[in-house]
Protein: TonB-dependent siderophore receptor
Amino acid sequence: MVTVPSFTRFHRAALAAALVALSAVAPTPVAAQPVPVQARIAFDLPAQSLDTALTALADRAGLRLMMRSQDVAGRMAPALSGTLTPDEALSRLLAGSGFVHRYINATTVTLAPAPSSSGAVTLDPVTVEGASGRGVQGPLATRATSGSKTDTPLLETPQSVSVVTREEMAARGVATIKDAVGYSAGVTPSASTDFREDLITFRGYPFDWASAFLDGLQMPSSTYANSTVEPYGLERLEVMKGPASMLYGQTSTGGIINMRSKRPTTTPVNEVEAKLGNHERYQGAFDVGGAAAADGAVAVRMVGLLRRSASEVEFVRDDRVFLAPSLAWRPTDRTTLTLMASYQRDDLGDSGGTQAFLPASGIALPNPNGRIGRSTNGGEPDFDYYRKTQASIGYDLEHDIDDTWSVQQTLRFRRVDLDYQTAYGIGLDPADSTQRTLRRSAFGSFGSARALGIDSRAQARWGTGATTHVTLFGVDYRRTVVEERNYFGPGPSIDIFAPVYGAAIALPARPYADQTVESRQIGLYAQDQATIAERWVLTLGARWDRAETDVSERTSGTAFSRTDHRLTGRAGLTYLFDNGVAPYASAATSFTPTIEPNLYGAPYEPRTGRQYEIGVKVQPPGGSSLFTAAVFDLVQQNVLTSDPDQVNHPFGQIQTGEFRSRGLELEAKVTLVDGLTATGAYTFLDAEYTKSNTDNLGNAPKGIPKHSASLWLDYAFPEGVAEGVSLGGGARYVGERPNTDSSTGRFMMPAFTVLDAALRYDTGGYQLALNVTNLTDKTIYDCWGNRCWYGQGRTVVATVKHRW
Structure:
């Protein structure tokens, strides 16, 4: 049962901060807005129908356009090309159309017939928005769906949401999902280099695979066969901090990351790129698509990537093949069906696989033999390999029944297959006084994770008096089947300071776990977003879930089943000032049926949690900046932690009781001057185990720092001899953090700061770029208990890109 804590000094301080934010601003009367200050954006739109052009402009500029939809039908728009403000782009697009635009606020524009001698005609407002439904202006997104499952301004969402746009990912040259969220508040990517998976924590909560979503549906996962995503195939990433169970069912209390795939548009997309980097990195990619029918009813897109690369660690590769075809069909003006598929194969090498674990002594702790080299592979090249294949197919269906009701359905089937074995490092041999001998085991994991997810929603936009509503009803279903065989047995030791490979090693004849875990969940949910007098936004939602888990363990011949029912919800209140300030408060709960297999018996209890959050969001007039400040208090019960007996049970987990995280997040995405943008974040986390049956009571979790911060600056020269040149640079700071949850063998890993840099030259059709991460080649690492692995050293990647 969730216990509501007393009103502590933390809560009083948080409330005081919110009251200060409220008192700093005063509401002003609603008035017609002048043209806001706006950053310039590169537009390249072909001549096309006016409604399609407006859709593309709204997507690009982050605007909401209001007009009567029937007045747009049949009208044409001229081609639009150049670096313009959204206001300039609208004026050119509407020239000669018989329409003019007027600003209602910084991000909302109304369209009306051009004035005549008889005066202008007032139109009934109808929202016409971009194809993705979420505005983007440069690196700044002003809208998101993850926080509500409706197209909602970030300013009106009563939880902290960070959005990483395609433009931001390209500017920083991100290669992994960890890289993509590295400059976001409340998010802690692992410092380690591990091509198998993206280890990310949210608001101090230990990593949880229930946090990963793609296009609104949860990604399948198992103990080792976990889904990964290629960033080049994404339009954007949205990180929702705190519980999301009311909308998504089983999720972590800490938050979710929802990734949106690239989709077809009627605006042509033609791009090819080649990358060349250190560690013998060669990569090619393409993204092509556009209208496949003259009337724009059919659009197609194909995204692909091929990478061949070594790595900083001997024998470990980072090879990938990725393909993602999609097709959008719009049979009527009210219906859109988008079909999407993907294929991804990751191969870390048939003679190296992964780098295995290295001992803490010689990396994080002193060793008389010095420091273990970053390129050292603790595995066995002739034995190790890692091959993972992922494939998915699904669709999004949207239909507007009338001006009030619309329905949507998202479906996806995804499969992950894994073959993986390695000589697994388990620490230095205590019998060796020279402290050179790494003990190793033979480890293997073979299996698959299959998942079917369906989310069906009905949405109504309606009003009563001075109140407007966006009401959502939904039902979702997911079924996940995990089949895996895991092996763990003795292996030969190795001198880790002067490794000599070639020792005989083999997996045990019998697995320690050979099981099928099937989970099914069905959820019913309802939400209402009520805007009262254009000032107050009240968000209320509730959800009921039924979750079933069946475990069949073939090694012991045992089987277990478990069924859970839970009610979760969220309540939030936001106040909208005219000057773009929006303070808010919210409470939410979470529910996470645990599908990880329990090596000691019956399935784990579900984890439950709750969050209180207050904060303020600021979007000054002009829409080119967004500031967010939030304080939060989260609690989760039935938390999984590693078995303290790692020697005899290195893969065992136990449920230790309760975990609490309190903190402060500050984040800003801002246009400082014309051409100069900044992304900054700071996070303070006070996280600890508050109930436990082990020796971790009162401890912060492994890998979680109290303080972290980041800043990225990007400047594009607007004109003159340097026109087309852009410079970028950033710094990421991670504070000291513990190596284990336990009090036994606990030490603090040192804080570090990593610098990144970028240089680009864009001619319009071609772009040359140079990205450097970890510019100073700083040595960083992460440790779990007495096992550590290094983070990425200096990485240099040159890119040549052509768009047409």
Remarks:
- DSSP finds seven helices and 49 strands in the chain.
- The longest helix spans residues 9-23.
